[in-house]
Structures are given as structure tokens and as C-alpha cells.
Design goal:
single chain, 50% helix, Alpha-Beta Plaits
Length: 477
């Protein structure tokens, strides 16, 4: 087996997009000229990914037979060919050159230099120098899929932990590092926001017993007042109701007695739980009468909505909104909402909250842009600050919810959950103030004034967006 090595002289051109057609035509002629030079065995040319500023990239690899042939080329023809390119295109392209050692000759046939399977760039190590993909075969294993799925969680020095730790305990550091160019070590900002928001809504609102009820056994009915309504069953003197007492002369029913409802002629049997005082039943009746909200009365298996929906009016609305929120549409919306005690509306609202919070990001960034007009920061830099702050909120609330559930699960004192809730509610505003100080680097008094203004506009915008989301959810059920 021969043990000789060859050389690859690689030239990468980054060209202005306006002249790329002319440059490609020139490059084809240039390759023909290179093949005519003694010592060059073959030439490979291909297009690579565009540069960071969006300019096309062309890579040419010239295979030389020996070191001496390369040295002769660099000392002679190379200078004239470079000058010809400069004369043709001036400074509208850049060229990077490097020398690569080709793989060993095996069984008399030249094994070509390995290239990245993603972008085609020649590999000089286990990672591609252009796109960053690891050099690997096309085949993947189950173990590799598992490592890619959970590797970052198990590696202490992974980007996840290098992102979440400073995001939690060092306000503003992640944003400051990102703006100063230290980015590769962290997760991308918007990806961090999306992942943490999904985790929060899963932790806070996902109920496995509701979503996967088939996997759980039926729960026993809670102890309470059992009400049975019938048109002729369970009346005094009939079988199954022995010992029931008739109403007293003053019209008050005794515990366990049957009483006639004059509204519909039905007989309702009220059975208190053992040991339950009759005043509990009376209190439940009083609560029903005193309830001023939307009431749903069950009578003869029919649901009747309270007349409160008839009193809804559009009020003083802008003309463009009044044409859409007519009294008829508002009434229909109200009836749909109260039909199931607002459960469908609540589910629809909860599903829409993540999108509503995303809409809040550019609004708060606009407020920061107005509060820091002399900071010389672009609008997108303020967006980055808001994204990191919201990601922190999702992270800290997820941790607080999980801790509270752990306290309940292991039967720890409830005061622990209360203490963590208070600590989180104080830490979030303190975190925002510290982050503003670190990122925008202004004095305490100036930051405090802008902090108060930001909080006022933040809560106003949050209430406005949630109100609009609630209205949209009500109309969409």
C-alpha cells in the first residue's frame, strides 16, 4: 500500500450578489487555466452556504501532486491569476486560502478528502468549520437519537444549563452577553422563551386526570347534599320514602322531608349527610337566592339561562367596534358562555393566552425604546430584553408551581408553599429592576423612574391584551 500524501489548495470566494453571474463565468475559465498548470491533477468547485451578510460563497479545491508543485504555483502563476481577478472585479469579492492534507492513498486509489454532508465544505476535524455539523455517517442509531434528545439535560456544561442558571440568578447578564457578541454558548433567545412558556403551561394547567381520564379509576362523589327531583317519585306516603315528615304548618321543611316547589310542581327530597346540620341546607338555599351573577336553574331536565344576558348593551363604543359588537351578538355570546358555566370559554381563553403574551413582547419593547431614546440601541435589542425577562418569568413560576405541588404531595407544612409564593412575587419585580440596571447601565434614580413607568404600561398592556383575548375567546366558542 503506498504511503504518499497529496495536497489540496482550497480557495473560498465571497462575492457580491450583483456580480455573481459574471464571477461564475470567470471562475469556470479560471479552473480551465488551473488544470493546464503542471502539478495540478484535478479541481473540485462547488457552492457553499452564503456568508453572514448574505453574499454567495464559492469554494474551489486544487489538488496538487506534491509540496514542490504547490510551491512552484504560489511563486509563479498564482500572483498573475490573482491580479487578473482583481482587475476584473476590483474589491467586490474576498478570497480566503488554506492548504489541506489529503487522505492517504489506499489500495492504489485516491480516497477523496471528506466533506460535510450538510454543506459540502471540506472537513479538517470532527466538526464542519462552515455550518458546525458534526462529521458522521448517514446512519443513525436509537442510542444517538436518545443522546440528542437528552444529552443537553445530562451534560453539566451544556447550553441549557449555561442559559438557565444565569437567566434565573443573574438578572440581565444573558441579555448583556448576547448583545456583546457572546452568543454561541447560550440557547437562542426566542427558542428559550418558547420552550419555557410551553413548560410553564404544562406544569401549571395540565391535568392528567382530565386529559387521560381513561387511565384512572372513577372518583367517588363528594359528601354533600343529595337532591333528587321527580314528578311523582319519592313523595310522602309512597314506597321508598317511609318515615318522611310532612311540611310543618309554617311552610318550612324539616331535614329529610319532602316539600313541594310551587314553581313547577316538582317534589324535591333533601337528604343531609349524617352529622350535617340542617342550617347548611338553608345556607345553600340562601346563597342561591343572594347570587347576583349568572344563574342556571335545572328544571325538568332543561337548562334555563338567567335574564342577565338580555340586559347587555353595547355601550359607548367606537363606531368600528359598535358595528361588530351589536346587542344581538353580545347576547348570543353571553348565552354561549353561561350555557356551561363558562367552562368552554375558560378553556378557549387558556389556549389563547400564550399567543397573547407573544403579542405583548413587541409592545413592551416599544415602551423601552421610548424610555431609552438616547441609549443608541436598536428596537430589536429591546425586544431581546423583553424576551429574556418573560422567559425568566415562565421559568421561576414553573419552579414555584412544582415546589408547591411537591409540598402538597409529601405532606409538608403548607406554610412552605406560602413562603415560596411570597418570595417569587417579590423576586420578579426586583429581578426586572436589576436587569434594567445591568443592561442599560444608568443611575439608580433614572432607572427607578423608568422602572415605575415600565411597570405601569406593562400591567396596562397586559390587562388590555388579556381583555381582548377574553372577548375573542367568547366569540369563538
Amino acid at each position: 500500500m503506498p504511503d504518499s500524501f497529496g495536497l489540496v489548495y482550497e480557495v473560498t470566494h465571497i462575492v457580491d450578489r450583483e456580480i455573481i453571474a459574471d464571477f461564475d463565468a470567470w471562475l469556470g475559465q479560471h479552473i480551465e487555466e488551473m488544470l493546464a498548470i503542471e502539478g495540478i491533477s484535478r479541481v473540485a468547485s462547488f457552492s457553499a452556504n452564503d456568508s453572514d451578510d448574505g453574499r454567495p460563497r464559492r469554494v474551489s479545491q486544487y489538488h496538487f501532486d506534491s509540496d514542490a508543485d504547490l510551491e512552484n504555483y504560489l511563486a509563479g502563476p498564482a500572483r498573475f491569476l490573482r491580479q487578473a481577478a482583481e482587475d476584473s472585479f476590483g474589491g467586490r469579492f474576498t478570497a480566503d486560502r488554506r492548504v489541506l492534507h489529503q487522505n492517504e492513498v489506499i489500495d492504489g486509489s485516491l480516497k477523496p478528502a471528506e466533506v460535510c454532508l450538510n454543506c459540502g465544505t471540506t472537513l479538517t476535524g470532527q466538526y464542519c468549520g462552515d455550518c458546525g455539523q458534526r462529521a458522521t455517517t448517514r446512519l443513525i442509531s436509537v442510542w444517538q437519537l436518545l443522546r440528542e434528545a437528552f444529552g443537553d439535560l445530562l451534560e453539566i456544561d451544556s447550553r441549557i444549563w449555561r442559559t438557565l442558571i444565569p437567566l434565573t440568578v443573574r438578572p440581565g447578564k444573558l441579555t448583556r452577553d448576547y448583545l456583546e457578541g457572546r452568543r454561541a454558548r447560550f440557547m437562542p433567545p426566542f427558542r428559550t422563551y418558547l420552550v419555557l412558556s410551553i413548560i410553564f403551561f404544562l406544569v401549571a394547567f395540565f391535568d392528567p386526570r382530565e386529559e387521560f381520564g381513561i387511565l384512572f379509576g372513577p372518583e367517588s362523589d363528594p359528601a354533600g347534599v343529595v337532591e333528587e327531583t321527580g314528578a311523582g317519585e319519592g313523595q310522602a306516603g309512597e314506597p321508598g320514602n317511609e318515615g318522611a315528615q310532612l311540611p310543618s304548618g309554617n311552610g318550612d321543611a324539616l331535614p329529610g322531608a319532602s316539600r313541594m316547589d310551587p314553581a313547577d310542581g316538582d317534589v324535591t327530597t333533601e337528604v343531609p349527610v349524617a352529622g350535617q346540620d340542617a342550617s347548611i341546607v338553608d345556607q345553600a338555599e340562601n346563597d342561591k337566592e343572594d347570587d347576583a351573577g349568572f344563574n342556571i336553574h335545572i328544571s325538568n331536565d332543561e337548562t334555563t339561562v338567567s335574564d342577565d344576558c338580555d340586559e347587555i348593551e353595547g355601550g359607548d363604543l367606537p363606531p368600528w367596534l359598535a358595528t361588530r359588537l351589536t346587542p344581538e351578538r353580545l347576547k348570543a355570546m353571553c348565552e354561549r358562555v353561561v350555557a356551561d358555566d363558562g367552562q368552554a370559554w375558560a378553556r378557549k381563553l387558556l389556549d389563547s393566552v400564550p399567543a397573547a403574551l407573544i403579542a405583548l413582547l413587541p409592545l413592551m419593547a416599544l415602551v423601552l425604546k421610548a424610555l431609552y431614546p438616547l441609549s443608541k440601541r436598536y428596537y430589536v435589542e429591546h425586544v431581546l430584553f423583553v424576551i429574556h425577562f418573560h422567559a425568566f418569568i415562565f421559568l421561576i413560576l414553573s419552579l414555584q408551581v412544582m415546589f408547591s405541588r411537591l409540598v402538597s404531595f409529601v405532606s409538608l407544612p403548607d406554610v412552605l408553599g406560602l413562603v415560596t409564593s411570597v418570595a417569587v412575587s417579590l423576586y420578579i419585580p426586583a429581578y426586572l429592576f436589576k436587569a434594567m440596571r445591568r443592561v442599560y447601565d444608568q443611575r439608580w434614580l433614572s432607572t427607578a423612574i423608568k422602572y415605575v413607568l415600565l411597570l405601569m404600561t406593562y400591567f396596562g398592556g397586559l390587562l388590555g391584551i388579556l381583555g381582548a383575548t377574553a372577548l375573542i375567546a367568547a366569540f369563538s366558542i
